[in-house]
Amino acid sequence: MWIVMGTQKKHTLKSRRKLPYLFISPFFILYTVFGLYPFVSGLILSLQKKDLFVGFSNYQSVLTDTRFWKAISNASLYMLGSIFIILPIALLAALLLNNTLIHRIRGIVSTVFFVPNVTSVIVIGITFKVILRTNNGVINQILMNLGLISKSISFLRNPSWAVWSMIFIGAWRYFGVNSLYFLSGLQNIPGELNEAARIDGASKWQEFAHITLPMLKPISTYIIFTAITGSFSIFGEVLTMLGSDSTGARDSMLYPVLYLYNTMFRDGNMYKAATMGYVIAVILLLITSIQRALMRDKDEGGVRV
Amino acid sequence: MKTALNPRKILLRTVFFLILAVVCILTLYPFIIMISGSFKTDLEMNSYPLRIIPQTGTLAHYVKLFATIPFFRQFGNSMLVAVVSATGAMMFNGMVAYGFSRFSFRGKHTLFTLLLATMLIPSQVYLVPQFQMYKSMSLFGTYVPLIVPSLINAFGVFLVCQTMKQIPVDLYESATIDGCGEFKIFLRIAVPLSAAGIGLQGVLTFMNAWNDFLTPLIYLNNDIRFTLPIGLMKLQSFYNVSYGSPLAGAALSCVPIVILIGVVGQKYFVQGMMAGAVKG
After folding, report:
1. pLDDT beyond 70 at B240
2. Which of B62, B70, B188, B272 has the greatest number of beta carbons closer than 10 A?
3. Mean pLDDT of all residues in chain A?
């Protein structure tokens, strides 16, 4: 009897030990096949040309390609625009939404704010093409009616307007969801903190600068991270608005993924395109680690106060 | 909120309401343009001044849309891809999340860190080598490349983990004592109790798959197999197509998303997304 129970227990224990791995295996199996394998084979591709090993010459050709840097600079400008223009406005809206005076309409406003985030790039492209077009475009008509301009602006084709048009679209698209993120950050701040500050005689501004902002750090880190990665994944909007063979006047609408796509599927240069993927990834990792370092520094300063 | 409002507060509230109303109108304005444009004649579309309500409404763009591309077929393709992606994602993410949240086992911490680390690799890296891989597996032109990314979505696992962690251990223990096997516990206890997280994950996956543009553009090559976004993209390039039909197609392509938001409700959405976001 004892022996039987013993082996049975041992058996179940053994199978129990394997069980967790069974549950988590789908992710790791699928990732190995569809993620890790391409990741490695892509690295190998980037060191090759026509199946011959060529060392880093593909990297050299990407890094010395002025069009590639144009694409990176467009994405960087867009990124700065999102961080320094869109996010502050989103934070303002979140502060407004967090105000108890408007709690009754918070639900409906949140829904509206959420909508652009789940709208597809093709819908955005088709619609904003109409909104931004030169002849009889919505924005042009409004600006003319207000008497701000006398001649239509070619928002998508004029190189000095191109990035601004993209930031405008980005503002529409990401403003709402980012203010919802900020709002959730605000609602996670314990009320006692603000109360304590008020008792200590802090002004509204001091309360904001010394309590609200530092407490928003975790969510801000996330928001800025998504803004950075989002800026480097722009693709569909441009393709939809400009048509599939345009990158804008003087490459003003050339973005990293679009350039990678064109290199791969138009020029048929698989090796250079693969290399580009890795270079973009490294640039992104650099930017995001700078961001993390910057935000961590300030965080420690905030704690000390 | 029981305190009576003084005049200053009433004024302030009115101002806040107005600001938010304006912001909401601006947010919805492109959709208004889209819908109204889809009913306008080409003549009115290109005339001044701009009207929201079309002067002479027309259904011509919808007729042309259906005549130019196999719209319903492509709508169905998109639906198929999105539903399969969402179902697969709910199944796989549920299983993996259960493995991580229910058990403690050797290498758990390392494996979970590895899983999260896959999120840090920018997707641009995979574009070319995945294309080569799918081509060599003869999966080019199929929906497999469109569905797989949903199944290996670390963020989804993380999201479901957050809800599964909240299930009390006692429940698992009493089920074990009652003689339930682990798969039974998974299906009867873990899944129903974390339905909110799994469901949200499914909805988000559905939306991403429905809206996806780059992947189907790369992998699909004939209009019978296109998903809707690619169909609409190609529609724009037809010589006789103006703004109207693409706007009509775009408007119709929003319908499933609108229904989902309506059914699922914003509160659930926003809160669920935040659960995933606040990871520091």
Report:
1. yes
2. B272
3. 89
Q: Is the dihedral of CA B106, B107, B113, B117 positive or negative?
A: negative
pLDDT tens by residue, A214-238: 999 989 999 999 999 999 999 999 9
B217 chain-A contacts, CB cut-off 8 A: 239
Check CB contact under 8 Å for A136 and B124.
Answer: no
What is this model's ipTM? 0.90
- B126 at interface of A, judged by CB pairs closer than 8 A: yes
With respect to CATH, is domain B71-241+254-277 assigned 1.10.3720.10? yes
- The structure tokens listed for B36 are 């109204």
Name the residue among A135, A181, A278 with its Cβ closest to that of B277: A181
**Quick check: A303 pLDDT over 70?**
no
Determine contact, residues B210/B230, Cβ cutoff 8 Å.
no
Contact status, residue A131 vs residue A139, Cβ threshold 8 Å: yes
Which residue type, as a one-letter code, is found at position A24? I
Q: Does B14 touch chain A (CB under 8 A)?
A: no
Residue B171 in 3-state DSSP?
A: helix
The minimum CA-CA distance between B84 and chain A, rounded to whole Å, is 16
Interface size between A and B, measured as CB pairs under 8 A: 265
Question: Hey, where are the domains in chain B?
Answer: 1-58, 71-241+254-277
Nearest CB neighbour to B250, from listed A42, A102, A123 = A123
Question: Which among B2, B91, B28, B76 is positioned nearest to B231, based on CA atoms?
Answer: B76
Comparing CB atoms, the residue among A24, A31, A105 nearest residue B152 is A31
Contact B96 A24 (CB under 8 A): yes
Whether omega for the bond prior to residue B49 falls within 30 degrees of 0, making it cis, is: yes
Task: Please tell me the distance from the alpha carbon of residue A113 to that of residue A171, in angstroms, as a whole number.
Answer: 12
Residues of chain B contacting residue A185, judged by C-beta atoms under 8 Å apart: 278
**Whether B124 and A38 lie within 8 Å, measured CB to CB:** no
Report the gap between the CA of B114 and the closest CA in chain A (Å): 9
Whether B50 and chain A come into contact, CB under 8 Å, resolves to: yes
Show residues of chain B in contact with A259, CB under 8 Å.
none
According to the 3-state scheme, what is the secondary structure of chain A?
Answer: CHHHHHHHHHHHHHHHHHHHHHHHHHHHHHHHHHHHHHHHHHHHHHCEECCEECCCHHHHHHHCCHHHHHHHHHHHHHHHHHHHHHHHHHHHHHHHHHCHHHHHHHHHHHHHHHHHHHCCHHHHHHHHHHHHCCCCCHHHHHHHHCCCCCCCCCCCCCHHHHHHHHHHHHHHHHHHHHHHHHHHHHHCCCHHHHHHHHHCCCCHHHHHHHHHHHHCHHHHHHHHHHHHHHHCCCCHHHHHHHCCCCCCHHHCCCCHHHHHHHHHHCCCCHHHHHHHHHHHHHHHHHHHHHHHHHHHHHHHHHHHC
Closest Cβ opposite residue B128 in set A126, A270, A285: A270
pTM: 0.91
d(CA A264, CA A123): 25
